[in-house]
Design a protein that fits this description.
The protein is of the alpha/beta class and 406 residues long. It has helices at 21-25, 106-115, 133-136, 141-159, 176-187, 216-225, 248-254, 256-267, 271-274, 290-303, 305-308, 318-325, 334-338, 364-371, 377-391, 399-404; strands at 8-14, 36-48, 51-56, 61-68, 71-74, 118-124, 165-166, 193-196, 228-232, 280-283, 326-330, 348-350. Helices cover 35% and strands 17% of the residues.
């Protein structure tokens, strides 16, 4: 272990839910209809815009599928890439037997974290998708809410039983008041993060500009309890692209644009004015684009507010709210770090993205050292761990921090 570099707190990794989650944590009356895993064969698989397609053939390559109502969700090597050579990370079927155990087993994950210099890790869901939207899209609302609570119980009680694994929980989009109650239920047992959609209007729900303030009960609960609203790229279920025939590399390069659009939404929504203690974080969006958006947003607020529809929503320039309440996250963005003064050293956190194809694991520590070379050690400490420790309340969670006061 490198004693000269901070132990990393990764604020964006992923867990592939093990097959027993809902069959164990759902109330008995829901288990027959709850999510379950089935193995089948796949002869061809592809992906356009993050939507998988495949030809099923029982005699072909085995693939594990999650089943839920009409949803059939395949496991792929792209989502379980840890330990695979880069040239083998393809949109192709995989089973739990073939995955690296750290994808779904917490004890194995801790071993993999140690190998990469990672002290603590916050993990977004896989099968329910990054904001848990699968359950908000289902027909049976009572089943969907039971699945959300079962996931949250598993996340808190089993996956995050070791304090180095940091919980992030789900909420129902169809009922923000019920979501607020779920926020408070989980905050009472130490949860400081929920997964939310970067652009809920993409999912068919009211936008955060909704004049009836649809989301207010949820955001009020988060503000009251210190729970961070975490938005992962793709949590709007629509990945940016230029054309239907553009290669996936175009989408992979442009993924940050959803975060950029979402941040424009939030900066001009008035929510950060109404809830000054509410914190939001953008996962896997990188940070190099942030300085210009802040510059442009402030310019628009100053010059175009008479017709821009926000004169009565924002008392101060948008960058003021960013500095106070918004966090960007990155795993590979040297340009962003070179312009950290224009972003804010207190507003940036690091991530690993285990076990996805973009992940820096197992070279995370080397990548972090290279990217932060030449930065003030105080700044490196903040970006690699300190900002995340403060934002997610980890001083109360990690015994080592309590002992050392780090």
């Amino acid at each position: 272990m490198d004693e000269d570099f901070p132990r990393i707190v990764s604020v964006d990794d992923h867990v592939i839910e093990p097959p027993h989650v809902w069959q164990t944590y759902l109330p008995a009356r829901f288990r027959a209809e709850g999510p379950r895993v089935e193995r089948s064969g796949v002869s061809h698989m592809g992906s356009v815009g993050g939507v998988y397609s495949w030809d099923e053939d029982p005699s072909a390559t085995p693939c594990d599928f999650w089943l839920y109502e009409d949803l059939r969700y395949p496991m792929t090597k792209v989502m379980a890439a840890a330990g695979l050579p880069r040239d083998e990370v393809t949109v192709s079927p995989v089973t739990f037997d073939e995955m690296r155990p750290g994808c779904f087993d917490p004890a194995a994950r801790l071993i993999d974290m140690d190998a990469a210099g990672i002290e603590a890790s916050l993990n977004f869901p896989t099968f329910p998708r990054f904001a848990g939207q699968a359950f908000s899209e289902g027909r049976d609302r009572e089943l969907g809410f039971a699945c959300i609570q079962a996931y949250n119980d598993w996340m808190v009680e089993e996956w995050c039983a070791d304090p180095r694994l940091v919980p992030i929980t789900l909420v129902p989009f169809w009922d923000p008041a019920r979501g607020a109650a779920e926020v408070r239920r989980n905050a009472a047992r130490g949860v400081r993060a929920i997964a939310f959609s970067e652009i809920p209007a993409y999912l068919g729900w009211p936008s955060i500009h909704d004049k009836d303030r649809y989301w207010d009960p949820l955001f009020e609960a988060c503000a009251d309890t210190g729970v961070v609203v975490c938005m992962h790229i793709g949590s709007g279920s629509r990945m940016p692209s230029t054309s239907p025939d553009a290669p996936p590399a175009v989408q992979s390069t442009a993924t940050f644009t959803n975060c950029m659009l979402s941040m424009c939404d939030w900066l001009f929504s008035g929510l950060l004015e109404r809830y000054p203690t509410l914190k939001i974080a953008y996962s896997e969006g990188q940070i190099g684009w942030i300085p210009y958006i802040l510059e442009r947003a402030d310019h628009v607020w100053e010059t175009n507010r008479a017709w821009g529809g926000v004169a009565d929503l924002l008392a101060d320039p948008p960058s003021t709210y960013f500095a106070r309440q918004v966090f960007g996250c990155f795993f590979s963005d040297r340009f962003g770090l070179e312009n950290l003064a224009d972003i804010g050293e207190d507003n940036v956190m690091f991530e690993c993205d285990y076990p996805h194809s973009d992940s820096t694991w197992p070279d995370t520590l080397d990548v972090a050292r290279e990217m932060t070379f030449g930065l003030d050690p105080v700044v490196v400490e903040k970006v690699m761990r300190g900002n995340a420790i403060e934002l997610f309340g980890l001083r109360d969670r990690l015994p080592a921090l309590q002992a050392t006061g780090a």
